[in-house]
Amino acid sequence: MGDVLAYEAELLGLVKEYLDFTEFEDTVKTFTKECKIKGKPLPKTAGGFLRDSKALIIQKDLLTAFEDGDQKVFFELWEQHISPSLRDNDPLAQKLEFYLHIHFAIYLLKCSVGKPDKADFNERISHFKTYLETKGAALSQTTEFLPFYALPFVPNPMVHPSFKELFQDSWMPELKTRLEKFLSLTLKASHAPRLLTLYKENGQCSKEMLQQLHQQLVEAERRSMTYLKRFNKIQVDYHNLIGVTAELVDSLEATVNGKMITPEYLQSVCVRLFSNQMRQSIAHSIDFTRPGTVSTINTDICSSLEKIQEVPLLPSLDYEKLKKDLVSGSDRLKAFLLQALRWRLTTSHPGEQRDTVLQGYISNDLLDIHNSSQRNVLKLLHSKSEVVRQYMARLVNAFASLAEGRLYLSQNPKLLRVLEERLKAEVKDSLTQENVLGALQKFSLRRALQTAMINDGLIFWLVDVLKDTDCLSDYTLEYSVALLMNLCLRSSGKKMCVKVANHVLKVLSDLLGHENHEIQPYVNGALYSILAIPSIREEARAMGMEEILRCFVKEGNAEMIRQIEFIIKQLNSEPLDESVESDDEEEDEDDEEDHDTMEADLDKDEVLQPQLGELSGEKLLTTEYLGIMTHTPKVKKKLFPGVHQSIDEPLQRPVTPGYHRAAYPT
């Protein structure tokens, strides 16, 4: 009861506010009267929502100030009626406010009859500059707004190519429409009764949240048990090591006093140093009785350890049964099998173990690459189940992460087209689309597949996707830019860019200032490559590309600065013969580097979780699909050796993001 009394006035205020909002006028009068009779306190202001009529008046005043260019009145109303939390935290509100400041800064240039008043114009530009240095600084890393930070310093913005869109007749009406829509939603929403807000925030989605939290708890407990086992093992090893160290110190002291150390003692120390499964093997593999030095004994121990620690090969599988269930089983079984087969690849040890797994998949044609029948494993990319499509795309992406896997996949001429179709058909930025994109990016290491992607117009799709990077995940952004660069390195890709030169240059110049610095090498590589074409260089000069690049020379790191200097040099180079522009089309097709990198993203955000009693992963494979041992040693094909170039220059050979991070760590 004490808690109720403490908050009674506020609770009564919430009730009255809601009744006012829903226009229960008689009920409000009765409620107020009864509160007064019972001596219940009511807040003097019942909460602060606005009637629709009041909201419309505020909206009209704001739009009038916008049309009249009355900056002072507009921002007074804006700050008074748009909540600070919305202005500071909502990306949509922040972007709109940025454009509104631009509108008032250039208003006199657009709307003045005759020459604008210089003092008034300078005051507006000064106000805009102050905004950029204070609140507007938060958007300085957003590529969409980066060119506008130069606006206060340009003598005549009307003729500058970077600001051409601001002075088009359609720009101001479009901005007004955006403002009107924002105000109609915000003024109405921000003045809803607090009782309704509390209900919406706390009364809904609680069940889904509890399930999600429960799943997270189960996962956290599983990880906790794993870490606890590791900790206990490390602790035991630590105590064992301390004990052996103390004994060795005593033995060393004994030898100083002239006492000899027996071979049996050395043998017992070595046995204690290693875990139980290694002790017997090491004890019998080293001859402590023969003459030798400490270094030779260490060499023997290391040699023995290497033999013991050889990674065992994984059991063979019944691939006929596997493929049959992948084609005819339930969607849930298909998804679990695809997940388990992928985990075999991603979690196996690089070297003989992973090579043997991959060789088993390829020699048994796991993905039906050579099967042209209507019902085969590749058809899972068209499954009606989104989970099956996603897990099939993940497996294809895992195959494409390995050079031998790419060679296997490339033997089906239809697979590339299927992946391109899925890329465009899947939900934007979904995990399925991410993995299809990742596979295509790795395919672009092979020249024949590069050519096919260029001819299919994939460059145009990538440029369209990269126009709006705010809604892209880091993976999609990074692999899209890397794929674009790989395609632009070919002469046919550069010529394809000529058709949309302005769009490509605009997208790449925006990406130069993106907050994700992992994409910078690919942006620089693509830009450097396409600027080899004279017509694209002319287009770049017309849009002031050198000025944009110079901005990044001032702010970038040393590596970025050196690469940009190469790009500027390319931009200002003299036109060359067409023979120089064409790349080495006659080179051998198999010129890809040995890019075997299994990135962690392949196993991220698993949506499939086994229920009680369900088998998954390696346990599912070895329980239900165990085959006869058919492992055969295979000499891994020696691929084109990695060509490492100077990090000072933009990239000029196809790469994958995973390989580039490993070869050139930031």
From TrEMBL:
The keyword Signal does not apply. It holds the Pfam family CTLH_Armc9. InterPro entries: ARM-like, ARM-type_fold, ARMC9, ARMC9_ARM_dom, ARMC9_CTLH-like_dom, ARMC9_LisH, LisH. Residues 575-608 are annotated as: Disordered. The keyword Lipoprotein does not apply. Residues 57-188 form the ARMC9 CTLH-like domain. Residues 575-604 have a biased composition (Acidic residues). GO terms for cellular component: centriole; ciliary basal body; ciliary tip. Residues 453-572 form the LisH domain. Its main location: cytoplasm. Keywords: Cell projection, Cilium biogenesis/degradation, Cytoplasm, Cytoskeleton. It is found in: Cytoplasm, Cytoskeleton, Cilium basal body; Cytoplasm, Cytoskeleton, Microtubule organizing center, Centrosome, Centriole. GO terms for biological process: cilium assembly; positive regulation of smoothened signaling pathway. This is LisH domain-containing protein ARMC9. It comes from Chelonoidis abingdonii. The gene is ARMC9.
